């Protein structure tokens, strides 16, 4: 069959860079890294399979299915990269929530659980309440968590410079 | 059979202690809450409570977690009937008849038949578990490492092949879960694998971080896309029992739903949505007035609701007897067993009869609690839907963080949970199934050890797998599931084109 430039062009044109393609690429890279890592370990020891026996096969299959998934996803329109996150109020909710979690993670080892949780909760509650109400709610919920988990259930919580 | 009854009575004695009754009540109440609140499914609910069970005994913790599992199925019904919002996926079909019934002023009847059906379906399925479970376990005792490995391969393939998603994406997720389970020290050689040179990863990734991140946080991230200020109005609930002429029809639909749900529960890879859809279709086919379906028909609620609770009982059989989780929530339950030093499988009935029979007995008690908590208290649970997401989500997020921190007192665990939450969010948006990751992550350790034992036995000759009859049958079933999945994909592609090839 003669080579048709048009056909190749239309095939290229129909490939999409979307969320599915990105996720497949990430799993492919992870599988590839694990496969290379496995090859540096023992596949077979003197009496039976070595520590990389299972990981070699699992990573090889992960690479194979990631490639299949990549091409199957690239053929679909899927969710374009600029459509992954919502717009308007949804985007604000997502951004504030992720930022609140990052603030908590950054502060918790320094300030301890109670202040870090109160600040995180303030940011989260401010999505649905006025700042005064959000502040009151965040202090109440963080304190309740502290009392229930740390004092009543004896669950260890991160302690910071304030000793709480 | 009499031996099983004897053990069951001992189980009732253990389950009826005040603290186990309390944990059962907490599980049932939390399960109702999880079911009622849209955006939190039984998987997320079970994962959230998992860290809190560290200090508890194995029987008490599994009694509580199992309570969430089977009761959340009913909790979802309340919002389906009253506000047309399914609290969890198994209740989607209930909206079709339940909500129209509520609009006709018969919300009470819809909730009543659902509660009675759930109780009957759940109880009969438990009776099935009592008698079928020990028999299956005794047969599975004949299994060696190769049979176990093939069984897990079969279970994994059925989960991926039948769960209703793209086979390729399902397999990618399944192998991703397996790959993540390999991080940490190798069990047999003690050599560190894929730890990136950090001490944190030496003990491997934590199951709870994975479960809370992928199921709990990701679900909240998705729900944040919607309006946080929405409020709902609830119709009045009057008269919980169907009219006299409807009672025989409802009774028959409950019986059919029980059988259907229980049988489907035995098959790995199915989920609680499948029996509800099949039961609804069956009721419609057998009905003398199929044209009325969609306008508020009582048997359209009782059949599917019974089927999803009977499914819960049936799906526990593969877990208790073979150690195979059939759904994500069951995988989290399996994780709870392992966390408390128990290994579900054929030896469970022999090595830990005190735990397994106490859990089974508690489910009978939990089902009865469900009936009493719902027939007179449906209105109370429905009021939970008034709690707005803007107050619920921050509280759930902080509980997720406390739960994951408490595993090892490590902030890194919280970081990992957040990262898995983002991964779960992106995978759900990209329509990559999450369930296979959890299922294979839980099975990863035992799959590796049985494979290594088998290959050592066979001296590296993998062909010997197919020379063992039980292995050969299981591998044949695996191949058949794969072929059916591929053919279904091809057929759908031919019908709908590339955009519609999800299975």
Task: Describe the 3D structure.
The complex is a heterodimer of chains A (164) and B (503). Chain A has 164 residues and is mostly helical. Chain A folds into 2 domains: 79 residues, no CATH class; 64 residues, no CATH class. Chain A is flat, with a radius of gyration of 25 Å. The N terminus of chain A is likely disordered. With 503 residues, chain B is mostly helical. Chain B has one domain. In chain B, 70% of the residues lie in helices and 1% in strands. Chain B contains 20 helices and 2 strands. The C terminus of chain B is likely disordered. Chains A and B meet through helix 2, helix 3, helix 4, helix 5 and helix 6 of A and helix 8, helix 17, helix 18 and helix 19 of B.
Unreliable parts of chain B: 499-503
What does the largest sheet of chain B look like? Answer: 2 strands, antiparallel
Nearest-integer average pLDDT of chain A:
86
Distance between the termini of chain B: 41 Å
Radius of gyration of chain B: 22 Å
Give me the side-by-side strand order of the main sheet of chain B. Answer: 1-2
Strand content of chain A: under 5%
Radius of gyration of chain A: 25 Å
